[in-house]
Design brief:
five-stranded mixed beta sheet, elongated, transmembrane helix, ABC2_TM
Amino acid sequence: EFLTTVKRRAFLLTLIGTPAYFAFVTFLSSSASIQEKKDALKDLNVLAVIDSSGAFAHATREIRTTFRPAASFSRRPSLVPDSISFRTEVRFYGGLDSAQVDLRAGRIPQVLVIPADYVATGRIRRYTKPNSPFSSGDRRAIGAWLARNLVVDRVGDRVATRAARPTEEEQLFILDREGRFEIKDDAREVVDFLVPMFFSMLLGLSIMIGGQYLLQGVAEEKESRILESMMCQVSAEELMAGKLFGLGAVGLVTVCVWVGLALAVSGPALAMMPVFVKPLLLLVATLYFVCGYLFFGSIMTGIGAVTNNMREAQQFAVWFTLANFAPFILITTVLAHPDGPLPFWLSLFPPTASTTMMLRLGA
């Protein structure tokens, strides 16, 4: 079963084409997201301000915004992404009509209207042309400018700058399991979360790939009557075990190759990160993955055996596949309250047990 399947052209196409496709899509989406944030700040070259409150009469006439392309867990300065600085001219207008004329003509990208009761109500109005709803870099830059200039006359430039970014250099201490407070290590927490999450996603991917091979291997042979001939040579237990381990191994090989390619590409970057994966966490996540894969593999093999054709088998199998992904729908509850009633009962329900337990490991 294993050798016959891995020699098929469809298997080789899936093995090579799928990671290439997802790598291409991921690159495009991440590049587009970063570029969109940069464009939002770059396009905000002029901010028209109409101040009816009088609180910003002596406000600075420019906004300086620093953009960091991506977060880095490395402590090596050479590996930290270079920041990009953007400058926005703040231009005061006497009325809204003239500002809207310039906005329509494309001479300014945004208009900020500060009403007379702004200090009491906090209400402001912004006028701009249609843009992406997912880019908020310009909004944060304007908010920092408002916060700084609202208090600069009372507390001075240094305090006003800090008021605009009060938690820029925050150190957060958390209580560990031994009752001691330690500085929160974002890199370590990300790794502790990503390892179980990685195995959870890997399990779902393995079920979708390996499950299809199991369904196809059993359902097609049953439909073509080949299975009846094979039953004359081996017992039902031996036949099902061979299907499970042979075709299940095909799915595991596929996923292992993909993981190997991902590690080969990202290995140098991961090696530079000052993180340490706990061996016990890795071992437990692996055990849950293997148990979950064998459970779903048995389910898929059984579905293929009791259904009449491949189409009917897929209709039944989709419900078990969705059950495996159910904990991801409730991931906020599982991570926020890993010992709560809902995660507890999901851990006892076999179709959701493996995924839920791996997510609880990362909580």
